Amino acid sequence: MNILVTGANGQLGNEMQLVTKNSNDHYIFTDVCDGYTKLDITNIDDIRKMVHENDVRCVINCAAWTNVDAAETAGPIVETLNATAPENLAKVMKEVDGLLVHVSTDYVFGGDPYNVPCKEDQKGTPTGVYGLTKLHGEQKIQATGVDHIILRTAWLYSEFGKNFVKTMLNLTATKPQLKVVFDQCGTPTYALDLAQAIFDIVENRKYRGHSGIYHFSNEGVCSWYDFTVKIAELAGHTACDIQPCHSDEFPSPVTRPAYSVLDKTKIKDTFGLKIPYWEVSLRKCMDNIEKKS
Fold first, then answer.
1. What is the pLDDT of residue 210?
2. Taking a C-beta distance cutoff of 8 angstroms, is the pair 63, 81 a contact?
3. 250 pLDDT more than 90
4. How many H-runs (helices) and E-runs (strands) does the chain carry?
5. CA-CA distance, 171 to 7, in Å (whole number)?
6. CA–CA dist 138, 292 (Å, integer)
7. pTM of the predicted model over 0.70
8. Is 114 designated active site?
9. Strands 185-186 and 222-223, how do they pair?
10. Which tens digit of pLDDT belongs to each residue from 24-83?
11. Spatial distance between the Cα atoms of 200 and 202, rounded to a whole number of angstroms
12. CA-to-CA distance for 22 and 6, rounded, in angstroms?
């Protein structure tokens, strides 16, 4: 099967390139930047041309607008990338009776107070433009009737690009003291683990008859403070004094979810996935970061 991957230069796209190296399928990695097959997913005709010329039967959409704060003032481009583009991909895959795998976010939640892990059928209550446009993307995909696997994930990090782990590695190595919020809880997710889950579902054709929304993050729960303390501990950055603080000490244009732990029962039961604990995956990622440096 020929499989198209969008957003190939992002965190998840880079991990997808690693996990698919020995695949029985043929992967086409696309992005708008140099080094990849160029594809503008905001243009449905461009998608249609790419799909028909390459006999594509599955699209894995890793492309999105992900800058949460900047989304508040960026204008229509956020809706275009996070909702219209996925709808375009869904429409074209529907035309060829194909599959769309789409990555969404825990930010579709957050407006209502809750303290138990979010299930897939929980009502979306996004608190900002980013979450709202990602929710719109999910809804538009579903409305096309295409076979789809929508994967909501959270707190994504990797050895690629900019992310929380790499930022905290730098700050805990260079700052004598650091304040990190402790009143936002969730689960860090190693992009490599998400890529491997996607690969397993697609490579082994587990998706057949299982269209729907699924949650994927690593196992466990922590705050951003806990996450930072573990990063510093594993890196041996003992000189930095890391202090917990409240979210309101760091004013933001967006109210982030206070509790965005995702319930992963459905994805584990449906596809037989075993998901690593977040500290185990963090250690693996940091080893990979060290090897790259």
1. 98
2. yes
3. no
4. 10, 13
5. 28
6. 35
7. yes
8. no
9. antiparallel
10. 999 999 999 999 999 999 999 999 999 999 999 999 999 999 999 999 999 999 999 999
11. 6
12. 19
Alpha-carbon distance of 33 to 271, in angstroms, equals 34
Pairing status of strand 56-61 against strand 241-245: unpaired
Partners of 132 in the β-ladder: none
Q: Name the residue with tokens 């599955």.
A: 58
pLDDT of amino acid 31:
97
Strand partners, 212: 149
CA angle, 244 then 232 then 169, to 5°: 105
Please pick, among 130, 214, 225, 259, the residue that the annotation labels catalytic. Answer: 130
Side chain identity at residue 203, one-letter code = E
Task: Give pLDDT, residue 293.
Answer: 81
Contact predicate 56/95, CB 8 Å: no
Could you report the per-residue pLDDT of 256-265, keeping only the tens digit for each? 889 999 999 9
* Residue partners of 10: CB distance under 8 A and separation at least 6: 31, 62, 63, 66, 160, 161
β-bridge partners, 2: 26, 56
Give the CA distances from residue 252 to residues 127, 135, 167, 174, in Å, rounded to whole numbers and listed in that order.
12, 21, 18, 24
Alpha-carbon gap, residue 111 to 130, rounded angstroms: 13
Token pair in block for residue 16: 């997808």
**What's the one-letter identity of residue 191?**
A
245-260 average pLDDT score: 90
Residue 69: its pLDDT value, please? 95
